[in-house]
Amino acid sequence: MKLLFSSVFLFLLFGFNFAQKYEKFTEDEKSLIQSNSSEMMRVYNLVNSNDSIVLNSSSKTVDPKNKFTKLLAERMLLSVNDPAHKGVGIAAPQVGINRRMLLVQRFDKEGKPFELFINPEIIWGSELMQKGPEGDLSFEDRGEVMRHYIVQVKYFNLKSESITEILEGFTSVIFQHERDHLDGILLTDRIEEQKTKNYQYAPGTANLYFLID
């Protein structure tokens, strides 16, 4: 019994701290983030073979309090607001950094601000799905995709505060789209995946469905 209590104590003491450790930015990542730091970063394009390697790769977690995290977020915001190619969301891999952070325009909030999600996870997704057109800053293809109408998400802000909240509608769609980028999953992958699934229309709704297999 004493051994059990000792093991639990050690886990609480050291295991929690271990869970909070993040892999540091590499020198290459720092160089890219700092280069022309007052300007937007180039958005990676799938047609470029080198860019496609980054876009198809899974990303690592990031330390919310690292100074490079804040600078990266600021430059991502400039990129997604590029007047020549404005978007409603962007993920770090799209500017060449395979780290788990993304920006989403909050259409569910007054002023529709962009908000930063660090190390975001989807805890739960509704059975009710919504179908709608999606595009991507990293390639020209567009297509209709099924997404959870409502998702419960967990993430960190720049103060390293853990936040859990519910997203729905268009904001939910943007979050799910950008979250896919962190695992190297693209819009085209989702379109192909959903060709093998069956959905049933939800009566009395507009473009809402249930997955039936």
Overview of this structure, please?
The protein is of the alpha+beta class and about 210 residues long. The protein has one domain (about 20-210): Peptide deformylase (Peptide Deformylase), CATH 3.90.45.10. Helix content is about 30%, strand content about 30%. It has helices at about 1-20, 25-35, 50-55, 65-80, 170-180, 185-195; strands spanning about 90, 100-105, 115-125, 130-135, 140-150, 150-155, 160-170, 200, 210. The longest helix has 18 residues, at about 1-20. The chain is globular, with a radius of gyration of 19 Å.
Quick recap:
With 213 residues, the chain is α+β, with helices and mostly antiparallel strands.
The whole-angstrom Rg is: 19 Å
Shape by Cα distribution = globular
- Approximate strand percentage: 25-35%
Contiguous helical run count: 6
Query: What is the straight-line distance between the termini?
Result: 47 Å
Q: What is the string of SSEs from the N terminus onward?
A: HHHHEEEEEEEHHEE
Q: Which blocks of ≥5 consecutive residues have pLDDT under 50? A: 8-18
Helix amount, in percent?
Answer: 25-40%
Instruction: Just give the CATH class.
Output: Alpha Beta
| Counted beta strands | 9
What is the CATH topology descriptor? Peptide Deformylase
